[in-house]
Amino acid sequence: MSVAHLIERVHHTALCVQDFDQMYDFLTGFLGFDTEGAKAERDAPELATVTGMTGAHILWALLRKGSHRIELFQYLAPAGKATPPAQSDTGFTHLAFSVSDVDAIHDAAVAAGHRPISAPQVMRGGVSRVFYLRGPEDIVVEFMEFADRRNA
């Protein structure tokens, strides 16, 4: 049985980190996300129930860039693993952004002290130019410039 007819839109992507302030600054300062839901500390009993994590206690914010939101978490309790997944691991591997000038983003990232994995690369026979960046906590962020803006 499908629930497709009940889904209206994607609301957000959740991102859990060990250093909330560092990632918040990266997302808002470098990537330009706006704060939609202000930073808050939460430990309500329903949070533990919804997450299935007894004693859940978090720092939280809801950030928005265009139509996409990132729900940013840091679990104060229970403690989580600090190792980010490799690109080949199951689950969340990276955030991706369609951009108007991938070279300018790459240059700005280097100037800001961020760590691109490579220079922009032509992908899929010229459909796009792409590079990955290691953000705070080695979370990977992808930037893609499409030759045909209709593909963005």
UniProtKB/TrEMBL annotation:
One biological process term in Gene Ontology: L-methylmalonyl-CoA metabolic process
Keyword line: Metal-binding
Domain of life of the source: Bacteria
GO molecular function, one term: methylmalonyl-CoA epimerase activity
Domain VOC: 9-146
Keyword Metal-binding in annotation: yes
Protein name according to UniProt: VOC domain-containing protein
Species annotation: Roseovarius nubinhibens (strain ATCC BAA-591 / DSM 15170 / ISM)
